[in-house]
Design goal:
By secondary structure, the chain is α+β, with helices and mostly antiparallel strands. The chain contains six helices and five strands; from the N terminus they run H-H-H-E-H-E-E-H-E-H-E. The relative contact order is 0.09.
């Protein structure tokens, strides 16, 4: 629908509304000033809506007029720009810090069951890392912790000490103290 027809229809509806309202207020003995004020506000809002609608239609026509030139003459430039943006995004992704998401760590009971008595004396306990738990070597514990924010690990001399430390930091049903982190 052309914009001038839409605008004409709005003004026609406003005119009919005003005529009906004037007829109603003439039939009453005392016209209401609040109704008059509300009506003025409504008319002003409809006028602003009409102006915004006209501006939106003008912009749509302008965009449609420019679209064939972009599609026909500048397709190569747009493709080159998109390729450059993709390369920049890929480079930024390689240098950006990873996003970490919390997972559910093993409970102390699961840790005790996984590492039975007599399964070694020296333990590396990971409290905050990719997979919290017990590890036999420092290299294994480092592999699980490297890059993780606020990582926490410690070497314990016995299974009993390792389990006690893990339990003391586990806290709550979801293990708020023990934190499992994975890259998103």
């Amino acid at each position: 629908m052309p914009p001038y027809i839409f605008n004409f229809e709005i003004h026609t509806h406003i005119h009919h509304f005003l005529s009906a309202t004037n007829t109603m207020t003439e039939s009453t003995t005392a016209p209401s000033t609040s109704t008059s004020t509300e009506l003025e506000v409504l008319v002003a809002l409809v006028g602003r809506l009409s102006a915004a609608s006209m501006e939106a239609m003008r912009l749509a026509v302008e965009v449609q007029a420019r679209l064939p030139a972009v599609v026909a003459g500048e397709r190569a430039a747009a493709t080159a720009a998109a390729d450059a943006a993709a390369a920049a995004a890929a480079a930024a992704e390689l240098t950006a810090d990873p996003v970490w998401v919390r997972g559910v760590p093993k409970t102390p009971a699961e840790i005790v069951a996984q590492y039975p008595e007599g399964s070694g004396e020296t333990w590396y306990v990971v409290i905050r890392g990719r997979e919290p738990g017990f590890y036999r070597t420092s290299a294994e514990a480092d592999r699980v912790c490297n890059g993780v924010p606020n990582q926490l690990k410690e070497k314990k001399k016995s299974r009993r000490d390792a389990i006690a430390w893990y339990r003391s930091l586990y806290e709550g049903p979801d293990g708020e103290g023990v934190q499992k982190w994975t890259e998103a």
